[in-house]
């Protein structure tokens, strides 16, 4: 009679071993150390945290395309008026319309989506 057991140890080195036993004979088939992926906020769990149990047999999925980096790639929008508005796009993909004062020089970002606006410097 053969059995396959998954024996796990969540300690400082977080090692999980798959054990295969045939009539009382046990052999270690492989060692697997899960790699902790860090989120854009720097979140990492302690190696002894019980919440890591959900990643025993599957990897942790972290999107490498952080929104702050993607929005930084968007060029600022030039405006001729003193006040710009942003709704984050149209319909259900956007956010409530906000008005942004552009009187001071430089870029001014939307508080919801981070898009940047600036007033074009033009003389009459």
TrEMBL record:
One of its GO terms (biological process) is mitochondrial electron transport, NADH to ubiquinone. The keyword Mitochondrion applies. Transmembrane segments: none annotated. GO terms for cellular component: mitochondrial inner membrane. It is a peripheral membrane protein. It is found in: Mitochondrion inner membrane. The keyword Amino-acid biosynthesis does not apply. This is NADH dehydrogenase [ubiquinone] iron-sulfur protein 6, mitochondrial. It comes from Aromia moschata.
